[in-house]
Amino acid sequence: MLQLFIEHQWRKHLIVCAFTVLLLTACGGASREQMEAMGKELVAAAQSGDLPKVESLLDSGADVNVRGPDRQTPLMLAASAGHEEVVRALIDRRADVNATREHRRTALMSAAFKGHIEIVRLLLENGADVNARDDRNTTALSWALDEGHDEVGRLIRSHGRTP
User: Is the pTM of this model over 0.85?
Assistant: First the structure.
């Protein structure tokens, strides 16, 4: 029974993907150069906290998980900079909350390091891996506590992480 359910879900996914490809082809779709330009603009807008620009670019088809400097996603940059509404918008558009950048760091680690408690809460509520470790075996909890963000540390502990 589970196998049939999985096969049905997979078929639905393939149909949606095929329809998307057909639609983009019929409408002319964005060229590779246009997609790269939109990606760069999205990275810059997320980092600067320009919510209207982020939403406009996503509405135009920009990749929500595009990579910028040091392989950072728009979500990572917005989380690190403390742009809560941009983080919320990116998550609403299915940004990968567990994507890793250089040194296997995540958006949660960056937000914890900076003490952005509401962003940490938002990331945790949307499935961020509280137990993820970077290449130095450091967790978001360790980053928060090392920087003196005790309240952030308590929040992370409440989601299951202990030192």
Answer: no
